[in-house]
Amino acid sequence: MKINLLKDYPYFYETHMHTNQGSACGQNTGYEMAKACCEFGYAGAFVTDHNWGGNTCISRELPWDEWMRQYAKGYEDAKRFGDENDFDVFFGMETGYRGTEFLIYGLSPEEFINIPAIRTCSIEEQYSIVKEAGGMVSQAHPYRVEPYIPEVRTFPDYADAIEAYNATHSSPLSQSHNIADWNDDAMKLALDNNKPITAGSDTHSTILFGGGMAFKKRLKDSRDFCRAVLENEDYIISDGVYWRDKKGQIIASLEIR
Questions:
Q1: Phi-psi region of 248 (alpha: psi -120 to 50; beta: other; left: phi over 0)
Q2: Nearest to 212, CA basis, from 178, 154, 247, 163
Q3: How many CA atoms are closer than 13 Å to the CA of 173, on its beta-carbon side?
Q4: I need a surface site. Which of 1, 23, 69, 203 has the fewest CB within 10 A?
Q5: pTM for this model (two decimals)
């Protein structure tokens, strides 16, 4: 399958993606995930595997620097495909705090190695640590309700952005978490708190849902992505069904052929 992009927004990025090299729930390698995204029509993707507070497949007994090196293998594998095929692959992380999850962008594995305090920090401390290091925090799928999420908790004061549209909730191709209202609630949270939005698929396999964010120009790196979001650059998002503007209004139906 391949997505038809809107002419004015040709650079489409998957911002929430898992591999089986970092996430216990991942089903494919980073290389396989990046290849699938490229063939689908994405210009690039963020690898955002689960960290020690979530469903990681890396031993929590490892020393911090070794844990990070093992954890980054999914990203490195995806980047190998990207380097070979002019496809942008950026590093991210999905952190977990008793089921409440956040997406961190703008920091490299090496930069994470230099901030070991993030391993034992609180949600509030996480925000300060990431901001000081030059990154960005987006609260992931804030209204999702599942057995591994004991309660819905929102933290707009400790996030730069809100993942308002998670295509796992809305795409007809998704086989889990299928409640589109969770996206609507997340969009309202962003609007009520004057926060920019991010959007992604939360895909765990090469069955892609078409979620993500489309820009008018190619992103230079992960910090360029953070800048574009925080400086209100022109971009649109996909929930796997529709193209939407940054206020959640429908622009066009998503065409996947």
A1: left
A2: 163
A3: 19
A4: 1
A5: 0.97
- With contact defined as beta carbons under 8 Å apart, do 210 and 254 qualify? yes
Give the SS3 label for residue 237. Answer: strand
Token pair in block for residue 21: 């090299």
Q: Residue holding tokens 């594998």?
A: 77
Of the candidates 121, 109, 136, the one whose C-alpha atom is nearest the C-alpha of residue 21 is 109
Q: Provide the token pair at 173.
A: 């191709």
Q: Which residue reads 């925090």 in tokens?
A: 137
Residue 167: helix, strand or coil by DSSP?
Answer: helix
The domain covering 11-253 belongs, at the CATH homologous superfamily level, to Metal-dependent hydrolases (3.20.20.140)
Spatial separation of the C-alpha atoms in residues 219 and 209, rounded to whole Å:
21
- Both tokens of 73, joined, read 């293998």
Q: How much is the CA Rg of the chain, to the nearest whole Å?
A: 16
